[in-house]
Design brief:
This protein is an alpha+beta fold. The protein contains 2 helices and 7 strands. Strands 3-4-5-7-6 form a 5-stranded mixed beta barrel. The mean pLDDT is 85.
Length: 152
């Protein structure tokens, strides 16, 4: 006696195809029944509203809760910043400086942060405990002091 030529995979594909056709027939019958009862939903039934909290609602919003927004208050993009000049010159004290290697560190007087300084960014030779003024710029490894000048 010969074995059946239908494999498991073929049987599964056939089941899926029959189920798909059955679902399609059921949807067709539902549409026919809906059409017989008065057609699809009206436009008013399909409208959805958003309440004052941003939630969807089926009822229209209450006009007494309406907020008036001035056109000037609407900002598109980034908010404007106040362009008051910021004093970029800082004061500090040299914590460490190596003349041979040409670098050192300055302690910022305000923030007490240690800032790297290179000999190329100084106007004079620096020594430990010298009072200096400087500006800060971002370097590849962190904050660097530039335009370093001794304070007399």
């Amino acid at each position: 006696m010969a074995r059946s030529q239908d494999s498991f995979n073929k049987k599964e594909k056939e089941k899926k195809r029959k189920k798909k056709n059955q679902d399609k027939l059921e949807r067709r019958e539902e549409r026919k029944a809906e059409k017989a009862l008065g057609g699809p939903k009206s436009f008013e039934d399909m409208i959805s509203y958003v309440d004052e909290n941003g939630n969807f609602s089926s009822t229209p919003p209450d006009p007494s809760k309406k907020k008036v927004i001035k056109l000037e208050d609407i900002v598109l993009g980034a908010r404007p910043t106040d362009d008051t000049p910021v004093d970029t010159v800082r004061h500090g004290q040299v914590k460490f400086f190596n003349d041979e290697k040409g670098y050192g560190f300055i302690i910022d007087a305000e923030s007490k942060d240690s800032v790297f300084v290179h000999a190329n960014n100084t106007s004079t030779n620096l020594r430990e405990n010298d009072k200096v003024t400087f500006e800060i710029e971002m370097g590849p490894k962190g904050m660097n002091a530039v335009n370093v000048k001794l304070v007399s």
